[in-house]
Structure formats: C-alpha cells, structure tokens
Design a protein that fits this description.
Number of strands: 10
Radius of gyration: 19 Å
Shape: globular
Low-confidence stretches: none
Oligomer: single chain
Distance between the termini: 57 Å
Order of helices and strands: EEEHEHEHEHEHEHHEHHHEHH
Helix content: 25-40%
Largest sheet: 8 strands, parallel, barrel
Strand content: 5-15%
Structural class: alpha/beta
Strand order of the largest sheet: 3-4-5-6-7-8-9-10
Length: 337
C-alpha cells in the first residue's frame, strides 16, 4: 500500500508568520531552501521526509531556483514529484518560489536578465514543478548590461500573465533595489522582497545599506546562508566530518576557511549559544530574526532532524544588549590565521 502523507493538524502552532514588506503576503519566519541536498545525486526518500517534516513544523515556504541541483533543474524536478505525491491537497497552504538569473543553458539566451531568458526560464521551471504558477518569481542577480527597465518589465509581464503572484529580486544592492522598486511601482506591479546573504559572519546587507533601504521602501528581506555554509554550527569543532559540506562539496566552503582564528570565533559563539540554551545554529538563526527587518530566514538541511531543531528559533529571537555586544565583539574581530 502506498505511503499516503497526511499533514499534522498542529502544523501552524510552532511557527511565526511575518508580513513581507508592505504586501499582503506572509512568510514563515523559517523557510526551507533547496540550494543543496535536493539534486539528482541526493536521496529522494530523504528529500520527501524533509519536506514533510518542514510542513508539519509550519514551514510553508519552499525556495528554489532554476539551476539548483546539481544537475541544473533537478531540485525543481524533485520538488515537482514530491508536490504531486504528497502536497497536492495542500498547494494553497504553500508558498513556492523560484528564480532565474544565473547560467542555465548554453548560448546567449540562458543567463542574466533579458526578458527572453526570464520568460523562457519560468516556463521551464513550471513544467519541472508541475505547477501553473509560482507564488514569487525572483530575478536572481543584477545584470549590468540589460536595462533594468527590461528586466522589471519581464517580471511585471510574468505577474500579469498569472505565472507568478509576486515578483522578487535577489542579490541586488541598494542602488539597484531602489531603482527596481521605483520602476515596478510605476507599473503597479508588486515587487515585494529582496533575497540576500546574511549571517553573523557576513553582514553585507548592513554594510551596503540594503537592510535599511528595504525597510524604508516597503520590501521584505529573506536571508540565505544564515549559517555561513555550516561554519555557524558545531559540526566543525572537532574536525571535518565525512558527511559535511566541506568533505562532500567544496564549491562554496573549503577546508582552508577553517583557520584556527575562525575556529576560535566559532567556539566562543558556541559557548554563548549554550548560555542561551540554544545550539550555535539556533542562535545564528535567531540573530537574523532579532528585529523586524528580516521577514524570513532560509535554512538548508540534509536530514529531517535538523529542520525540527531549527524551527524553535521562531519563538526565541530576543537578545539582551550584552549578548548582542558579545556577538559583535567575537564575530567582527578579524580572525587570526
């Protein structure tokens, strides 16, 4: 007999939901990202178990991009299968998002921000997902050559077509964010969110003004890589585990990143997390959500237990002034080699 998934009746009890900018949409404080662990080389049963666990814990947003995998497109294909098998009755309770902007197929039309690329890419994504629309479609990165007006017109056209309900941007700096918002406002199209990298170790959105400008402009922020590719966890305190990201996939985090100075920072942050009654990963996620300027934080996971562990941060985002100062003192000092 087939394994039929029935969602937990208590799935919304553990999660907080935050309004995305000035829109009517709300994101769960914790969302599930498909950047890693949902590709063609990963275990399908584990993927399905993680999606079930996430939804049962109140995580209603699944975040993808056209080239998530590897191979490109495989994360969308795998989620499409999971949606058909498990989540067809729950589609209206889910926020499904995808993106285009990085290289996807060969030749001049499979990259960056042209209307041709964005339109074709979303059509392909919808086929892989088996959906008539996504809830948010993002332009994945700034394009210095394509006129921003063309890229925003592509997003607006996609929203008007019904293939996406809202438009978003990702990896946009302050200048491009404000320009994009102004263009979309003129077209009366809902540009509601900017997705940016943000963590205790990477505060680029504070340094370049995006965190402040998004709040003032009425855009939400959703943060990715909140654990700095696993550095803001306790997994590397005793060496490099065989199943870790460094050991399995060295594209984004390398063994050379684990200097003794960085490890000392991680140890000090881990100690503070313990004093707060949290794991280091939990504290790092709580820190992202400590104010009202980030509406959701994207977590990655390789097993369901990690998702259960991290959902609790939605209810523990309070920090004392002394704790925040201590985090700054530890993390903003340059690590010795």
């Amino acid at each position: 007999m087939a394994d039929v998934y029935v969602a937990s009746d208590r799935r919304y009890e553990k999660m907080k939901y935050n309004r995305v900018g000035r829109s009517g949409l709300k994101f769960p404080a914790v969302s599930l990202g498909f950047w890693h662990n949902f590709g063609s080389g990963d275990n399908y049963d584990t993927m399905k178990a993680m999606c079930r666990t996430a939804f049962d814990q109140g995580i209603t947003q699944f975040d993808l991009a056209n080239n998530y995998g590897p191979v490109y497109g495989s994360a969308e294909e795998n989620l499409g299968r999971i949606l058909r098998e498990d989540f067809a009755p729950y589609r209206d309770e889910l926020v499904i998002t995808t993106k285009a902007g990085y290289d996807m197929w060969p030749g001049p039309y499979g990259d960056w921000g042209s209307k041709k690329y964005l339109t074709a890419s979303l059509d392909q994504s919808l086929k892989r997902l088996g959906l008539p629309y996504v809830d948010v479609f993002y332009h994945h990165r700034m394009d210095p050559e394509t006129p921003l007006e063309e890229t925003m017109e592509a997003l607006a056209s996609i929203v008007r077509s019904g293939k996406a309900l809202y438009a978003g941007i990702s990896n946009y700096n302050e200048e491009y964010t404000l320009r994009a918002k102004a263009i979309m406002d003129e077209m009366h199209c809902p540009l509601i969110v900017n997705q940016r990298r943000y963590s205790i170790f990477d505060r680029g959105i504070e340094d370049d003004g995006v965190k402040k400008c998004c709040k003032e402009a009425g855009l939400g922020i959703i943060a990715f890589s909140p654990l700095a590719q696993g550095l803001l966890t306790d997994k590397y305190l005793s060496g490099i585990p065989a199943d870790s990201r460094i050991a399995r996939d060295g594209r984004f985090l390398k063994a050379g990143d684990l200097t003794e100075g960085r490890l000392n920072q991680i140890r000090a942050l881990n100690e503070l997390a313990g004093e707060r009654g949290q794991t280091l990963a939990q504290m790092a996620l709580s820190w992202i959500l400590k104010d009202d300027e980030v509406c959701s934080v994207l977590i990655g996971a390789s097993r369901p237990e990690q998702i259960e562990e991290n959902v609790s941060v939605a209810a523990h985002t309070d920090f004392t002034g002394a704790e925040l100062r201590r985090i700054d003192e530890i993390s903003l000092s340059l690590p010795s080699k």
